[in-house]
Amino acid sequence: MWLAKAKYAIWKNLNDVRATFPGADQVVVGSDKKVIVFNIGGNHYRLICAVHFNRGNLYVLRFMTHAEYSKDNWKKEL
């Protein structure tokens, strides 16, 4: 379901992303870059993506369980 929606989405900003996925959050990581966190599978998983709105590209950076996400180690690695 997530992939089907994201594949054809045309997002210009975070508000557009949230119109499609209301639970999406923007997070600043260790490199001072912004990523978007999606809740997947009934809030059991997290999908971390870089979205380049100006190019219309989405890059999957991490897929993890909620427990792994909560440890915050991933923020230091990105």
Q: How many runs of DSSP E, i.e. beta strands?
A: 4
Q: Output the strand order for the largest sheet.
A: 1-2-3-4
SSE-based structural type: alpha+beta
CA-CA gap between termini? 26 Å
Task: Enumerate the spans where pLDDT stays under 50 for 5 or more consecutive residues.
Answer: none
Number of helices: 4
N-to-C order of helices and strands:
HHEEEEHH
Overall 3D shape: globular
The share of residues in extended strands comes to 35-45%
The major β-sheet equals: 4 strands, antiparallel
Multimerization state: single chain
Mean pLDDT: 94
- Determine the fraction of residues in helical runs and give it as a percent range: 25-40%
CATH architecture heading: 2-Layer Sandwich
Look at the structure and give the CATH class.
Alpha Beta
CATH fold name: YaeB-like fold
Round the Cα radius of gyration to an integer and report it: 12 Å
Q: What is the domain tally?
A: 1
